[in-house]
Structure of Signal transduction histidine kinase:
Amino acid sequence: MRTVLRAQAAEARLVLGLCWALLLLGVGSAWSQLGSAEGEPFAGRLATALLASAGAVLFARLQLSVSRGGAALGRRWLAPLVMATSLAPLLWDSVNPMLVVAWAAALLQRDLRRSLVASGLLLAVLVWVFPRSRLAAMGTFADLFFELLLYTVVLVTATRLAVLLDELRLTREVLARRRVDAERERVGRDLHDIMGRTLVAASLRNQAALRALGDRDPAGSRELERLHDTIGRGQAQLRELTSGPVVTRLDEELETCRMLCERVQIELAVDVRREPPGEQAALVAQVVRQSVTDLLGHSRATRCRIVLDRDDSVTVVAVTNDGSVLREEPPASRPAGQLARAVVAAGGSIGTEHASGGLATRIVRLPIRSEVPA
């Protein structure tokens, strides 16, 4: 629970903290009744206080289970157990202050049908129990219903607000990164338009000079031919630079991923067992960059592990997360689709493996050409 809580945005943690302060007031009220001189037996008051404490902890766990990275905390029995701890004191004619969380627990279940069924059963139990318990002495059923409704609205709204605030913060980080990518692409297009025209003009003038010089100066012709080859290589490099993704060096990309994951409280582990060959470093950096971008944009992961390794024939990049959203063959129009094309163009393969616990691993294998030393 602590790990999931740390993974939430600061604003989300603040909202959850306020909810839990409200729950603590209810728990404190239950424990304060231990010294009451009313006719209820001490054992009944103690059991009510213990159940109130357990209900508060279970409800906090239920809230975290619907938050980012908290799916592992969720169990089918969790919401029914919260409701049971809230209603159980009515068996010995005691009122649990944590009764107010029962309806909220029913509505926070991920399955809408289960939420509706649990809400209906809760209201049916309260209608049957109300005239037969001490609740009738505390007011009308309408008073009880509206009090439950008020607390339910507050708790459910606060929980959903915490989830929304966390998702907004994560989305903001991803959008900021995509804006950087868009700016890089714009600069690349401008560079291609300006430098491309300049290199074409230089190539045409070089060819005109070659034709004008003819055979009168063989040495000058050879130099112009070398210049023509240099301009041609420059044009090819410019096309390669502006048509593909712009990525930094591999070490810089890994450091950027560390910083970005740290901002959104994703625990990142990087294991560089053997660095890829120099000619593959840019493509490996692209794999890392796109995998982490997919992770941030489409999952609720709390942990990520990047492993880089190679042998004499292949370089392997494995990116594992516990959000289980990595796809093997995304649409070609998306950046991840461009990544798949780049990997295939390099003679490699890209795939996804899923494991228990919501783990997903994107594995990219890139063959090493024989002339590259191991």
Remarks:
- The CA atoms of residues 210 and 217 lie 10 Å apart.
- The chain has eleven helices and five strands.
